[in-house]
Amino acid sequence: MRSRHVDSSDTPWLVVGLGNPGPGYAATRHNVGQMVLAELAARGGMKFKTHKTNSTVAEGRILPGGPRFILAKPNTFMNVSGGPVSQLMRFYSLEPSRLIVVHDELDIPFDTMKLKFGGGHGGHNGVRDVIAALGTGDFTRVRVGVGRPPGQQGAADHVLREFGSAERKVLPNVIADAADAVEQIATDGLTAAQLRFHTSA
């Protein structure tokens, strides 16, 4: 049994899943971060509700006595995600160190992920806008790989398309692993989560 870090402050973790609003985008690669939030909410029996920060928010614990989570999906399009995130941070009086952003990542192969704290946006427009709005990149990112597009297909078209049939068979495991990573970051810290979830890809 692995040890579990107890956060005596009980300060919640704000977990933001990036994506685009509306049912037309819900199943696309760009919205994988919001798929991960749906998994986390289901685990904790949390219900998403409209919030004054132009977001949809669910609050609660996944495990009894475990960390408190605020799960948030901005109601804006991906490239203007920063406004809702900064409003959420102010509303809940949180520091960037308590923010975990879950998003798709072209530069990581499908069915793998990378976890990191800080750094730049890596060309991801949603992360770029969050950094601009917060004035810092010092937050944790769960980067869920969607891979580069095949052939001559453009990156924008790739992320706005739904996962292929072969990918959809594996997708539930990808989402579950990313949700597990979020939980472990909150309970055991980023380093422990990296040791478990980073792959050689």
From TrEMBL:
Its main location: cytoplasm. The active site is at H30. InterPro entries: Pept_tRNA_hydro, Pept_tRNA_hydro_CS, Pept_tRNA_hydro_sf. Its EC number is 3.1.1.29. GO terms for molecular function: peptidyl-tRNA hydrolase activity; tRNA binding. It comes from the Bacteria. One of its GO terms (cellular component) is cytoplasm. Keywords: Cytoplasm, Hydrolase, RNA-binding, tRNA-binding. The record marks N20 as: Discriminates between blocked and unblocked aminoacyl-tRNA. TRNA binds at Y25, F77, N79, N125. The keyword rRNA-binding does not apply. Monomer. Catalyzes the release of premature peptidyl moieties from peptidyl-tRNA molecules trapped in stalled 50S ribosomal subunits, and thus maintains levels of free tRNAs and 50S ribosomes. Hydrolyzes ribosome-free peptidyl-tRNAs (with 1 or more amino acids incorporated), which drop off the ribosome during protein synthesis, or as a result of ribosome stalling. This is Peptidyl-tRNA hydrolase. The gene is pth.
